[in-house]
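Lecture notes, unit on protein representations.

Consider one protein chain, 201 amino acids long.
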Amino acid sequence: MTTQLLLLLAVLVVGVVIGVVIVSNRAKKNENVRAQTPPTPRDPFANEGDTTGDPRTLKAGDMLDWGHERTWIRGSLRLSEGGYTWSEHFLEVDGGKRWLSVEEDPDLELVLWTGRPDTELTPHAKTLRFEGVTYRLEEKGTGSYRSEGTTGLRAQGGLDYADYESDTGQLLSFERFDHGGWEAATGQKILPGSFTIYPGS
């Protein structure tokens, strides 16, 4: 009986030792693999740690502090054409219509737009002249939208657009929603960090 007990104890001890050796070897192997794995490449120009907030996360209810004024996002449009997506955020302003477009193509591009209901100009040509500036057609297309918050549009629908740019970087854009009339806007590109985002509730 004692011999059997000693034999069983010896087998258990050997099993534990073998288990410890296997676990130790695996840990060393994993350490070697981690040591040999090169660090993941990073974009040196990425806005990581930017204290102003990420414009790609904007939504209705967020406040934007421009330094000299504060505005709120009343509503947002999530636009798509094929697999490409971008957003437009309508800002609370006294009179007129203003919005911020956010897209990655491939870099982050922000444009502050001002509605121009004072013109009947339409995107009928590859070159347009407006207020003494010549604009050339950059792109046009048809896509769909999804509406959030207050936009004056249905919950979802279709849009047509045409974007123009001058040699000096001035922007002219046309949009029409659900086969309605064309709406013109002039825009200027702005840099990320031009405003601080305070998320809404």
